[in-house]
Amino acid sequence: MKALLLIIAVLFSANSFAGVDEADAAYDNGAYKKAFHLFKKAAEQNKADAQFNLGMMYRKGEGTVQDYKKAIHWYKKAAEQNYANAQVSLGTMYKHGKGTVQDYKKAIHWYKKVAEKNNADAQYNLGLMYNNGEGTVQDYKKAFHLFKKAAEQNQAEAQNNLGLMYSNGEGTVQDYKKAFHLYKKAAEQNQADAQFNLGMMYGKGNGTVRNYVRAHMWWNITSAQYGDTEAQYNLGIIENEMTSADISKAQNMARKCVASNYKDC
C-alpha cells in the first residue's frame, strides 16, 4: 500500500485589493513576470494574500529566479497575519528544510495553528508528522484523528491515508470495508495512491468482493496516467488469471473512467 507525501497549499484566495485581482488574472494567463511584479507591489503594502502568492512564486521560480529564502520571508509575513495557506506552506518549508534549517518542531507549530481552525491541509500534514514520528513521538491515534478530520472535508490525501490506517489497523481497529470506502472516495478525485490501493482491495477481495476486472481497471489507470511500476507489475500478474475478454473489458472501463473525470468508474 502507498501513502502520498506531504503537500503544500498553493491555492490563491479572494482578496479586496485590486492589484492582487489583476495579478491573479495575469498568473492564470501565464504572464508570470507581470503577476510577480503586481504581487510584489501589493505584498510591500502588507497584503497577506499577495505576500503568500509572492512567496509561492519565489518557491516555484515563476516570474523570477527560484529563491527558497525569499519564499520563506514572504510566507512568514503572511503567516504572521494568520493567513492560513501561508502558515501551511511555511510549515512545509520547515519540514523539508527549504530556505531554512530543517526544523520539525517549527513545522508542527505552524501546522497546529491552522489545524486548530479546521484547515484540512494542515490537519493532513500534521497527521503525517504524528504518523511518522517527526518532531514528536509517533502517535497513530493522533494521526488517525487528524486524517479523519481532514478526510471528512473531502481532502483526498487524508482519505487515502485514513484508508491505510484502517487497512493496517494502526490507530484504530482494522476495518477493510471502511478502508475500501475511503480509497474509493479518494480514487474518484484522481488521487493516484488511492487508485492503486483500491486496485489492491479488488485484487485481494478485502472490504469488497474480489474483482479482477476492476483491479485491472484501476491499475491500468495508475500505470498509464502516472507510470506506476508497481501497478504495471500487478497487471502482469493479474492478467494470468483473466480471459482476453475480461482484459479488454477492463481496458475499456479504464478509458471510460478517465474520460468521465472519474465519475463513471
Short description, anyone?
The protein is mainly α. 67% of the residues lie in helices and 0% in strands. The chain has 14 helices and no strands.
Secondary structure class reads mainly alpha
Q: Which series of helices and strands comes N to C?
A: HHHHHHHHHHHHHH
Mean pLDDT: 93
What is the architecture of the domain at 20-100 at the second tier of CATH? Alpha Horseshoe
Note the main sheet: none
The gross shape turns out to be globular
Q: What is the tally of helical segments?
A: 14
End-to-end gap: 21 Å
Under CATH at level 1, the class of the domain at 20-100 stands as: Mainly Alpha
The number of strands is: 0
Please bin the fraction of helical residues. Answer: 55-70%
CATH topology of the domain at 20-100: Serine Threonine Protein Phosphatase 5, Tetratricopeptide repeat
Strand fraction band? under 5%
Radius of gyration: 21 Å
* pLDDT < 50 stretches: 7-17
CATH superfamily of the domain at 20-100: Tetratricopeptide repeat domain
Write the layout of secondary structure elements.
Elements: H1 18-28, H2 32-43, H3 48-60, H4 68-79, H5 84-96, H6 104-115, H7 120-132, H8 140-151, H9 156-168, H10 176-187, H11 192-204, H12 212-226, H13 229-238, H14 244-259
Structure overview:
The protein is mainly α and 265 residues long. Among the domains are: 81 residues, Serine Threonine Protein Phosphatase 5, Tetratricopeptide repeat (Alpha Horseshoe); 76 residues, no CATH class. Helix 2 crosses helix 3, helix 4 crosses helix 5 and helix 10 crosses helix 11. The longest helix is centred in the C-terminal third of the chain and has 16 residues.
